[in-house]
Structure formats: C-alpha cells, structure tokens
Amino acid sequence: MSRISASPTLKVLIEAEKLRRQGVDVVDFGAGEPDFPTPENAKAAGADAIARNFTKYTPAAGTAELKQAIAARYKADYGLSFGESEIIATAGGKQSLYNVAMVLYQKGDEVITHAPYWPTIVEQIKIADATPVVVHTRPEDGFALHPQAIIDAITPRTRAIVLNSPCNPTGAVASEPQIAAIADAAARRGIWIVLDLCYEKLIYDPVPHNLPAVLADRMRDRTILVCSASKAYSMTGWRCGWTIAPAAVVSACTALQSHSTSNVASISQRAAVAALTGPQEPVAAMLEEYRRRRDNVHAWLTADPRIECVKPAGAFYLFPRVTRLLAPAGLQSSAEFAQALLDEARVALTAGEGFDAPGYVRISYATSMERLREGCDRLMTFLRRRERTVGTVATS
Ligand SMILES: Cc1ncc(COP(=O)(O)O)c(C=O)c1O
C-alpha cells in the first residue's frame, strides 16, 4: 500500500467540501461529475425498485435484465452483439478497471497507458503489482495518441494497453485509425487492450468513434471495454458501470467481485436499465450545455495569451498549461498555483501533477455558467493581485 497514493482528484473535492461546510463560498472546478440531476426516468425506476421491494441480493455480475439492456445499448450504438456471459455490472467504471487489473496483471507484467491520465488507471496497475509504462501525449497536437509511441513502448513483458477516450483530463478523443494501428500491433503479440469508454457519450462533434468495433474486428478475444452510467446519465452516486469482455475474463471478474463487493445495488441496477433503454435526449441536452460552457470558459481563459489551452473534443474538462503564469505570480508549480487559488480566491481546481502533467491544471466545467464566470473572474483577479504583490516586492 505504501506504493499507492490517494486519489488527488478526490483530495480537492474533500478540501473544497470542508471549506464549504465552514460556510466559505468556494467555486468548485474540481468536480469529476456532472452537475445535472439524474434523468427522471432513471430516478423513477430507482424509486419503483424500492417500492416493489427489489432490494435484495442479485447475481454478483448483475441481473439478466441489466445485462440485456447493456447489450441492446451497445448493439444500437456500435452494431456489436454481446451475450450475457460477456458482461458484468460493476460499482462504476472504477471497479470495472479494478477487477480487470486484479484478474489480468501480476508482478513482472508491464501495462502501457498514456499521460496525462486519470490517476486511478496507474494506481490500479500498481495495486496489481504490475509496472505502469507511461507514454506522454502533447498539447501541440491536442494530446493526440500516437500509435507508434505506444507500439515503441511494447516489450516482451507487456501484458495490456489501457486506453481512455474521451480522455480525462485532456478531453482528447482517439480516432479509429489510431486505435486500429495499436490494435494491429497488440493482436500480433497477444496483448490485451482495455478501453475506458466512461465518457463515450460526451463527444462534441460527430467524429467517427466506433472504437469497440475497430477492436472487435481485430482482436475481440483480447478486448475489454470499461463503461459506466456515471457520466453519460449523470449517475455518479448510483455506482453502476460494466465490463464487456471475453467470457473467461468476465467469469474471473465475477469470481473476484463475488468475494468482495458482490452485486451493484439492486436499486441502481433498475435505474441503469431505465437510463440505458429509455429516451437518450437527456444525454444530448447535457452535451449541448457542456458545449456552451466549454466554448465560453475556453474563450475567457485564453483571453490571457499566457494561458495555453487546447479546446477539448470530449468529456467536460479543460486542461490549460499555466506555466507562464507561475513566476509572475510568485509561484513555483501548478500544485502551488492550485493551493494558492483555493486559499486566496476560493476556487478549487485540480493541479496537473496528479495527472502526470506538472504545469497544467484541470478545470471541470460540470458546473453552472454563472459559477464558471465567477470562478474565471476570481482566477483573473487572483493573478492580478499576486502579480502586483510580487512586482512590488521585486522593485522594493
Ligand atoms: C477516465 C475515467 N474512467 C473511469 C472513471 C470511473 O467513474 P465511475 O467509477 O464513477 O464510473 C472516471 C471517473 O472520474 C474517469 O475519469
């Protein structure tokens, strides 16, 4: 356990929440979850599950009803057919990734992923006693995945490649040819690909993103899809995700889960069925609102030419580079920047250090336009105040 650090993304939330409980008005750009309510039909299905006493254990891998709803959704979205033996419901995408790590990786294995990354991906590789191998993507090309860089990182010890699209924290969306090139190389060597699709519904432009089919065409027997109701249906607290994988992997994940957490809460399973099978308009409405926020916040931030910020193609985060703001504000690192911003301006955001990207900060725009405007104003005032103070000290 000493090799593993607590989630830095949750740390910000905890610190901001502590201040809020003390009555402090904190603008929260740290949230990794949608601010919209769960769609009505999902809430009603949850309430109905309680009313009908659907409140007992279910099979550890989830109900047949939920697995069928997942299969129907992926058939509609990607044209792929999955059987119940290829699906396990999990307590969010996080448990899905965790099960896979415990089941597939062991000491001596290398697991490749790309940075900036969601920290849990790497910590779970370490929990499984395997070694993370990190390939960096760059802002110059929108944090695009370069297949050759991933392929160059492959060694005889490589067990799996974990890919995340759309990506937290960069919002980058992988293209089908990128994934195809990686899959071709992985398939030849018997390497697993774990594709984290937790933000799959949050892609702004109609770019082709049938990554599941690209993988299934090349290496269905080594493809693992990690998915979740959390972001798509604004259901983070319900804790419902799923893994779609070859039956042997699902069976191993089920055995593991049957001795740890067992089934996803029965009530949440019913709510997820409603979300997956019901009208998908709430998803589209949320996406439109995210788009407006993304465009505004991006414009507000980049009005200061020192803030370099890629406009993300997916998810709900901006990931600006703040290195040019640091020295004039008397700060050494993005971690110091985030701490000072919380202490002095009461704006919570997440420093890039946690994503293996020092010099950056992550701004979640899963909060109202008003609060986004307020937070950006506070950020600019904070910078001006600090620059004045540092300037005064320097000249005195
Ligand atoms: C990239 C990525 N994968 C998976 C998850 C897991 O979310 P959940 O466990 O709520 O499904 C998150 C949550 O922030 C994430 O950012």
Spatial strand order of the main sheet:
2-8-7-6-5-3-4
Largest sheet: 7 strands, mixed
Percent of residues in helices: 40-55%
Number of H/I helices: 14
Number of strands: 12
Give the low-confidence spans.
Answer: none
Beta-strand share of residues:
5-15%
Question: Which structural class is indicated by helix and strand composition?
Answer: alpha/beta
The geometry reads as: globular
Order of helices and strands: HEHHEHEHEHEHEHEEHHHEHHEEEH
Q: What's the alpha carbon Rg, rounded to whole Å? A: 21 Å
Could you say which small molecules are bound to this protein? pyridoxal-5'-phosphate
Average pLDDT metric? 95
End-to-end Cα distance = 49 Å
Short description:
The protein is α/β, with parallel strands linked by helices. It is built from 14 helices and twelve strands.
What does this structure look like?
With 396 residues, the protein is an alpha/beta fold. 46% of the residues lie in helices and 13% in strands. The chain has helices at residues 8-21, 40-51, 64-78, 92-104, 119-127, 147-152, 176-189, 211-219, 247-258, 266-277, 281-302, 323-326, 334-345, 369-395; strands spanning 27-28, 87-90, 110-115, 131-136, 158-164, 192-196, 223-228, 241-244, 317-318, 347-348, 350-351, 361-364. The strands form 3 sheets. The protein has a 7-stranded mixed beta sheet with strand order 2-8-7-6-5-3-4, sandwiched between helices. Helix 2 runs antiparallel to helix 10 (266-277) and helix 11 runs parallel beside helix 14. The termini are far apart. The mean pLDDT is 95.
